[in-house]
Amino acid sequence: MEDDGRSIGSEAVVGAGPPGTDPSRGASVPPPVEQPERLVAWQLIGQARACQVIGSPLYAHLLTTAAQDVLGGGPLADLLVPRVRPGRGDAAGLRLMAAVHRLVLTRRATKLATHFPSVGGTPDLGTAGATFLDAITDHLEVLRVDVERPCQTNEVGRAAGLVVGLLACSAITGLPLAIREVGAAAGLNLRLDHWRYELPGDTIVGDPDGEVVLAGRWRAPVPHADHGFRVVDRRGCDRNPIDPTTAEGRLALSASVWADQPARFERLGAALRTAARVPATVDAASAAAWTREHVTPAAGRVTVVYHSIVEEYLEADERAAFHRAVEAAGAAATEEAPIAWLRMEPSSELRHHAVSLRLWPHAPELRHLATTGAHGDDVTPR
Ligand SMILES: C[S@@+](CC[C@H](N)C(=O)[O-])C[C@H]1O[C@@H](n2cnc3c(N)ncnc32)[C@H](O)[C@@H]1O
Known about the structure:
The chain is of the alpha/beta class and 382 residues long. The protein has helices at residues 36-53, 57-71, 75-80, 92-105, 110-113, 128-138, 140-146, 159-173, 247-255, 262-277, 287-294, 316-331; strands at 177-182, 196-199, 203-206, 213-215, 231-238, 282-284, 302-308, 339-347, 352-360, 363-372, 380-381.
């Protein structure tokens, strides 16, 4: 299910060994589940490295502290080891940090809050680790429940990568888009035509008045930028949809953002305000079955099924069934009713994330459109 950390800067972990080992030796191979403490520590330290790479020194520090605590038999061993999962543990590090951030955002961990910029704090890495472990001890019972919540980061910045493919679909087919997002979480990026994209060359696409502004994220000109794109229909699915219009939904989404990354909070806030006025259905359904029902050729529009950072969360059978469902829809496509499959997923070959496209009947072979960081930064179109 996991790619075992071969990608760099993935929302899930980069490969690494547990503290005290040389991460360059066998680092990307997780310890076996028969060594649960070592496996959990490997998961946490790998996520710590990803946080360091993507600009969250606070989470890098706290996750490293957590890994050391697990190896030392502290409260986090009690919390995480009995629930150990293979590979990257369904993003165990991110689930832990989202559960802790939830405590902070709901003012239940006031001392730790002083280190969390999301609530006005300033990190002091000299004392944050000890305060973090105290908060874990104080809230162990609630954390046992919250740490089981699945990783559901809904990162609006990823639209900077997806837009490269949407522009290609629009320009190649000359048709408006019916968008179908798989693993949409809260469906924030089902509103991605309402974001303002400030592309290289002073080109604006999307909504010029959009509250979500994506700027300075592309390292090269984006092909077909002048063409723009228009969305005429939108729908998504998630195994566990989040409603972004409820207080609980907003809390779940906020808790998933790394606390020392204010730009991501700003984007999330703008996306939540947009979501309150632009409806988008996210069906509670699994990828393959939903795709069979909702990804079908329709005349006069290009139906674009897309996903970002979802494939690693699909069980192998489900992933294969999902791929078959998209290919079956593609096989039924015509010039008047094309099907596109747009992906933004970790790529082991590129050691990065890749934006790729298949477009039936025009260009059914897989085309690599861009590389990108995990949160849609440093998008480099080909
Ligand atoms: C890391 S989140 C990414 C969310 C969103 N695509 C984004 O980039 O912001 C992965 C999402 O995949 C969803 N997911 C996992 N397994 C799924 C399945 N079998 N079918 C549909 N969604 C699934 C999870 O619930 C979660 O919301």
